[in-house]
Amino acid sequence: MMLNRLIFVCLHLFAMARCAATPISLSTKDRHRLEAIVRQHHAPQSLVLRARVILLAAAGVGVRETARELGIGRKTVQRWRKRWLASAEQPFAKRLCDAPRPGTPPTFMPEQICQIIALACEPPSESGRPFTHWTHATLAMAASEEGIVESISGHSVGRFLREVRLKPHRTRGWINTPRDTDFAAKCGDICQTYRLAPERAAAGIATRSIDEMTGVQALERAAPTQPMRPGRPERTEFEYVRHGTTTLIADFDVATGTVGYRLGQTRTEADFAHYLATLLATRSPETHWHLVMDNLNIHCSEAVVRLIAETIGFDGDLGVKGQCGILESMATREKFLRDPSHRIVFHFTPKHASWLNQIEMWFSILARKVIRRGNFTSVQDLNAKIVRFIDFFNKTMATPFRWTYEGKPLAA
Fold first, then answer.
1. pTM of the predicted protein model
2. Taking a C-beta distance cutoff of 8 angstroms, is the pair 347, 290 a contact?
3. How far is it between the farthest Cα atoms of the chain?
């Protein structure tokens, strides 16, 4: 009996020795950090649990009591107490993190991944596939057919492409603009014209930006538009009835922000020359003008050149269109209209740079506020609503655009 009792006492003491843990002491800074983790509502629960284990250990609570209070196993408590003590030299952020794990070996070799990425950068037509662009699924299929990998999922292909920021399923439009040797000069000239507009206006010199908005459709919705409701936007009928189109020729006063206009069915050389003659007649015959527009052919037409020559009192020989003199070609007519010594000076935007024309900005306002969501029963109805908006705009909304571009080359 005495021997059995002695063995029991020894086993009990041995078990208590195993459960006894090395005491943990915390610095004030570490204690505050651990308490902050416990108080965080959005901290991972595994991290909060480990912080509580260390705090209880620092408070003198044993392994068994800690496991019982936190509802975890004793081995877990012992593991994190030992790991905390063993990582005393490491930064605080790493002392509660999981230990590195070896993980499974990679399924695809780096060489295979590089080949898949190279395949994604080639047009599908080069490998004889009858589509215009890759998707993750078609790339996975092609990689298997080309013998790059035995098999691969579209999800894995997408992961490789995301790592190198490739998106073959997306596209954006752009225009390959030929290098205009005079781009910088033309752009700088227009920007300077905008900057000088207020000063010139004070001196009685007019600055206008002119362009045309063609093919504006008079669309009537096949069903009434349903107004918005809480939780649901306005609903516009998809189908519509066409009632024809109209053409708007407009000018934007760079100094005041007001708009002039003419509505009609066509935009011909004669239409533009007539509009220009009407615009010039709104001021006294001695007024100086600076007119900004794009390089559309009707803006440099024979009719425009003859109109300007007559208006400024030019008595020289204009020549013959297509043969000689000022009227010979677009280039010669443009040079005449650009002449800064004239009372009326044209400023043409470079090719594919109509965004320099301020009237284009106003056209976008008109499209958003009147045309895009409008409902028009006829061309006359469309014209009436455009006229009504322009009158409203000139009375209540007209203001000069704040032009910040200085004519420097844009980033490639």
1. 0.66
2. yes
3. 139
